[in-house]
């Protein structure tokens, strides 16, 4: 197989962890005789410094010519002025909206070897295996107007929360279809007791449910969901929610796995990569942007201490959801588990008696496990 992948390492630890993701991707190519053409382009703060824009035209052109995007992270203190006209984070928002990346998938699966890394009791989190499906192109992050106004009474901040019925239906259908390959339960999270947008969200979820009689639909208010994620996380299978709620809940859910350095994500678009091919979930293969959920972590950039596993697992999602390489994706995921089972750890998941390794060493260990005996 030949595939062209746009690589946007970004800022902070982004280039370090993306380098390890590419190392594992090339190991997949060597083992299964695939050719992955990976071309890098600037994005985020570094792109602002060089080109004056967080998403230069040449970067966007590369993305549009590729089958998938491997993304690192953007941002840092040198670009953290809220008054600035251009900010690194604008690159992600532009990519999501411009490419129609409406469905953000964040799987949270606790590996048995890491049960004691989390701050939660092992008996609470043992067996956690859930997916958060976050709507990614609507809601507060894209609503207009969004501004700070000067009025006679003083300064006033305004943000707009808006969703169309079509946007809501699209993401909830996605969650129902994903649940069919899992434990067939969807928890729709909203704030229907307060927000009109959430009441529409709940209405549409209820209207769609009869079309998926094999799926159990549960409604939950977002504050209750936040509580249940740390009290009874194994009760969840697929969680679907709007943009801001999903942003917050997924960071909370990351702690179930012990570290944000362990969790990948996929942002999938409406454009299929193949007209005829369906993934094992029953969802058509789609163009996607794949990234770890952690940020740029500038405080540890360049120290070879960042955990690359979230990026490596994002590569596995890329193989599965955009390229349809399901066996290869499982090989990557099993390689991560095997290396952790051997006791290798980066600093964020380090336990007494285990082997501390750096970013590069962890990536190399996983890549070697992927290669096997070739």
Q: Topology of this structure?
A:
Elements: E1 2-10, H1 14-32, E2 35-40, H2 45-51, H3 57-64, E3 68-73, H4 90-98, E4 103-109, H5 122-125, E5 129-135, E6 147-151, E7 154-158, H6 165-179, E8 185-190, H7 196-208, E9 216-221, H8 222-231, E10 238-241, H9 243-254, E11 264-272, E12 286-292, H10 309-321, H11 326-341, E13 344-345, E14 355-356, H12 359-371
Parallel strand pairs: 1-2, 1-3, 3-12, 5-10, 8-9, 8-10, 13-14
Antiparallel strand pairs: 4-5, 4-11, 6-7, 11-12
What does this structure look like?
The chain is an alpha/beta fold. The protein has twelve helices and 14 strands. The chain has helices spanning 14-32, 45-51, 57-64, 90-98, 122-125, 165-179, 196-208, 222-231, 243-254, 309-321, 326-341, 359-371, and strands spanning 2-10, 35-40, 68-73, 103-109, 129-135, 147-151, 154-158, 185-190, 216-221, 238-241, 264-272, 286-292, 344-345, 355-356. It has a ten-stranded mixed beta sheet with strand order 2-1-3-12-11-4-5-10-8-9, sandwiched between helices. The model has no long low-confidence stretch (mean pLDDT 93).
């Amino acid at each position: 197989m030949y595939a062209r992948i746009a690589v946007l390492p970004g800022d902070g630890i982004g280039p370090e962890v993306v380098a390890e993701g590419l190392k594992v991707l090339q190991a997949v190519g060597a083992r299964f005789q695939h050719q992955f053409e990976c071309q890098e382009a600037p994005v985020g703060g570094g792109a602002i410094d060089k080109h004056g824009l967080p998403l230069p035209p040449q970067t966007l052109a590369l993305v549009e010519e590729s089958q998938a995007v491997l993304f690192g992270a953007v941002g840092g203190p040198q670009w953290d002025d809220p008054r600035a006209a251009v900010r690194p984070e604008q690159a992600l928002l532009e990519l999501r909206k411009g490419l129609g990346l409406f469905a953000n998938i964040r799987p949270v699966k606790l590996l048995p070897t890491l049960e004691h890394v989390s701050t939660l009791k092992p008996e609470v989190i043992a067996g956690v295996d859930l997916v958060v499906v976050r709507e990614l192109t609507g809601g507060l992050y894209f609503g207009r107007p969004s501004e700070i106004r000067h009025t006679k009474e003083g300064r006033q901040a305004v943000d707009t929360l808006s969703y169309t019925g079509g946007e809501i239906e699209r993401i909830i259908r996605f969650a129902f279809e994903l649940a069919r390959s899992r434990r067939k339960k969807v928890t729709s999270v909203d704030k229907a007791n307060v927000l009109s947008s959430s009441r529409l969200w709940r209405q549409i979820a209820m209207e769609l449910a009869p079309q998926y009689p094999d799926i159990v639909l549960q409604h939950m208010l977002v504050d209750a969901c936040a509580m249940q994620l740390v009290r009874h996380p194994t009760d969840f299978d697929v969680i679907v929610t709007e943009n801001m709620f999903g942003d917050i809940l997924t960071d909370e859910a990351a702690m179930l796995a012990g570290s944000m350095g362990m969790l990948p994500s996929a942002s999938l678009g409406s454009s299929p990569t193949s007209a005829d091919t369906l993934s094992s979930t029953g969802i058509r293969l789609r163009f996607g942007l794949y990234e770890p959920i952690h940020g740029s972590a500038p405080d540890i950039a360049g120290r070879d201490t960042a955990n690359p596993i979230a990026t490596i697992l994002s590569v596995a999602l890329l193989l599965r959801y955009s390229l349809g390489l399901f066996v290869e994706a499982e090989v990557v995921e099993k390689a991560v588990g095997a290396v952790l089972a051997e006791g290798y750890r980066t600093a964020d998941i380090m336990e007494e008696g285990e082997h501390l390794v750096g970013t590069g060493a962890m990536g190399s260990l996983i890549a070697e496990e992927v290669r096997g005996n070739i």
